[in-house]
Structures are given as C-alpha cells and as structure tokens.
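Now read these lines:
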Amino acid sequence: MSEPTRESLAAVLEEIALLLEVEGANPFKTRAYRNGAEIVRTHDEDIIALAKADKLGGIKGIGDALQQKLHELATTGKLEFHQNLRGNYPDSFFDLFELEGIGPKKVGALHKELAIDSIDALKKACEENKVAGLSGFGKKTEQKILEAISRREQFADRFRLDDCTIAAEQILDLLKAHPDVLRAQYAGSLRRSKETIGDLDFIVATSKPAELTDFFSKLEIVRDVIVHGDTKCSIRLENGLQCDLRAVSNDQFPFALQYFTGSKEHNVALRSLALKQGLSLNEYGFTAAGKSTQHDPIPSVHDERDIYRTLGLEFVEPELRENRGELEAADSGELPELIHWENLRGTFHNHTTASDGKATLEDMAQAAIDLGLRYLGIADHSKSSPQANGLHADRLLKQVEEIKKWNQSRGDELHIFAGSEVDILKDGSLDFDDEILAQLDYSVASVHNAFSLDEKAMTKRIINAMENEHITMIGHITGRILLRRDAYAINHDKLIDCAAKTGTIIELNCNPKRFDMDWRWWHKARDKGVICSINPDAHHPNQFQYLRLGAQVARKGWLRRQDVLNTHSLEEVQTFLTTPKKERKL
C-alpha cells in the first residue's frame, strides 16, 4: 500500500461527489464530499495523522460519516464505499468526463436514459440522433458533443508538455544511472518545448548499444515493446505515449542529438547552409561534400555547440529551432539572451479557496515563499463566474483587507498584490466597475463565456477591456484548452497592437492545458514593446511549478528577461503598477 497523501484522499472524495452527482443524489450530500476534499487539502494540522488516529472530530465540515471514511482511507489506502460506487461503471465510463462541455448531470442522464458508458457508445448514439431527443440536450448539444469527440480523436496521439516532461525526466534519470551510458539526453519536440508532444526521443552514447536497448525494453513503466533492435528500441508507456531510444557512439552523440531534436525545417536549413560550405551534415557527423570544403580538415565536434560553431553560427538554443529566423539571427550575432525560469521573482493570476482555488491565501503564500518567490498576485474570479464561486465586490474588498494585513505582518517575507480576474462580459464591459477596480493593485481581464462570437466581435470585446485604465493584463487570450477545446476566434495582430498602444500586459498563461498566448506570437509582441507576465493560473500550491514550463515556452517565443514583468524586483514592480498605465516602462 502506498502512503496516503492529502491529494490522494481528496481525489477519492471528489470522485465520490462526481459519481453521486451522476446518480442524482441529494446535492447536500454531494457538496459534503466536495467540501470534505477541500478541508483535506487545506486543513492546518496533519490531517493524515488525525485521520489515521480517528481524531477528526470537531473539524468543521467533517461529520461522523466522513470521519469514518477518511479513517478507513488513511489506514487501508482504499474505501469500500468508493470502490462499490466505482464498481457500478466500467473504466471507459470515466472517459466521458474528459469531453468538453459535458458535466456530471449530463453524463448521468446519458447513462440512465441510453445506457451510455463509453465515448464510442456516445458517438454512436449522437450519430443516430438519439441524444438530441433527451430532455436538456437538443440538436445543438448533440452536435457539440460530436465536435468534442472529434477533437479528442484528433489529438488521441498527442500529449501535454507537463506529462511528457515528467515521463522523460524519469526515464532520463534511469538511463543516466546505467553504467554503460556515457551521455544521455531527450530530444525531439519535448526538448524544443512544444506545447503538445507526439512521442519522446532519447539519445544515449554508449559502447554497448545492444545492452542499452535491452535495458530500455525492460523498464518497469513499459506497457509493450514496439521495436527492439541492437541500436534502436521503441516502447509504449501505460498512457499510450511512445518512447524511442537510439544508441550511438560517443562521437556520434552531438550529431544525433542535434538531428533528432529537430525541427525538420530547422535541420533542412542547417544542412543547406553546411552544403554551401562544402560539408554534408547528418545524424552521424560532418563529411566533405564534393571535392573541396572551406573546412580542411573538418573540425572535431564534442557537443552541439561545435556543430553550429563549425558553420560560423552562434549556438541556437533548442527552443528556437523552428526555422523562424533563428539561423539568420545566429549568423548575424543577433540571437536573444533568453529568459531562464530562475529569473522569475514572482507571479500573478493565482486563485485561492475564496473562488475556485484548492488552497487558502495563507497556504498559497507559504508555497510561494518556499519556492523562493518575492511577490505573489492573487486574482480570484469575479461574480459573473458563479461556477468558480466568483467574488462579489464585498467579498473582494474583504480579501483586499486580508492581504493588507498580511503585508503589514509578513510583507518582508513575501509581498502579496491584491487583484482580481475580472470577467470580460459579452458586450465588452467588465464585471466590476472602475470604482472597485481602482482599489486593487492590479487586475487580469479574461473571457470565460460566449466563446462563439465571431473574430471581429471577440477582438473588439477584448480591446474594450485593454482600453480600460484599470486593466493591467489580459488573461489566456484565446481561451484554448489544449487537446480539448479550440481557441476562440481573435485577431492577434490587432490585439498585440492594442496592447502596445494602451500599455496592457498580455499574460503567458503557463498552465500546461493552456500556454496562451501561443508562443508563435510572442516574438512579434516583444518587438512591438508588449510586456509579458508568465502566470501559472495556479489553483493549488503545486501548480507554481508550472512557472518552469512557462519560462521554457517564453524562450520558444524569443522572450528575454527584460520582456517579462515578473522577472523584475518587487520595488520595480510596485513602481510599475502605481504608474499611470500608458506611462509604464520596464
């Protein structure tokens, strides 16, 4: 039995609440389990120890029945009530909750009325027009379900950057620990920090390639072996992610790493440049192309930097290798000095239990301190997001006072900025009036509904928010959910121009389900003078770790330290935020 954690206990309670809602249970009972999950996550004392000792009595929100269940969970690692509830459904049933726009009540209705227990069964029912006739559905909902299923199928072989990073680093540690490995690194689109990944590539330098491919094929995390040869092995993990290992000599390693990092377009351009200098470049090394070369003899290559140096180029960081001007910049000496995640000194756009966060203000602040941050922005949802327990003005101003008290007592450890994630309403107006917004340190304006507006209307909607002097930054500018929901239609060019003109920051929302604004637009925004804020949109202390991924994606967008608000000192940020919007400079 693995040791129970707060998160494992909370996850069980949340799944119970989900299944009870599916079954149409009393909403008070459902809410009790969700509240219980929240208490487990945020209670000040060691709730695992209290649950094991059966000493949860007296904690508000945890009644006798929940005390017994938490005791059973903490001591045995499982809960009979949960297992019996879950046992009513096949594993495929839980895939239904991953579809965009289908909540527990709709899943429950589909299961009750049509015995639907899988995505395949749901697709078939929609295609046969059986869903449209159900109460609360209709033809439009049926079509949206089919579109959600289509998106899921389209991205079935794609994985998010965070999931791939965790798997890759786990495998890389195992490879580096092998006694016959001289050098090892992951390559491919993960090394280039693409927002979604198709598969993982690993390169190892070794004098015993067959031993390494055999070792790779027998890793405990392997679900099945696709290909197993003396120098290459392909495996599939439990989640379906394919991983390829290539074993090469130590001399070949830098060439293989460069080649399999890609991108294909970057490599084609690099090989073309090599040919102009009389060299042929491939995954094994440099050779003379034709009868003569300007490189005589061909220089020795020990690492990737030597490859670029041989061709008269500055080293191109992996994130930039997309054939989007990086080779021209490397040739002219104009590559940017890219941001590093260690440059980040604080973060904005974070949530607490005041709205839909999973931790209290105190817990979020302590996690920021533990991470070494100097300042933290709290931007809980505004009132037009009731699904996220959005704050009305009175609750928001109460939170502002709470933050002031924190800064008076513990501001030397961490300064908290009081903000709000303010809904941009359908007509472009804001969820709070200027009088309320003026009492905040900053604000994040975001779209959370009416995603189907056309490009012109949606662009105007966001521009209206940018033109408000109290709006500091725009959150998740396209609303996309990677692998689940497409971006709504906007004109990036117009929004970037407006941000530059009005002094509005555009966030790089580094929650790995978003990475929004897309990295492909950041180079242009940077050149226009638009300031970025790398924000995790954290709803839990663990999600501050997304800042590392955010910096990687910012690097991919050619961003430098000076382009990002939250690389600056507390004093600089305070001055920035108290300066009239159109006059702000970093």
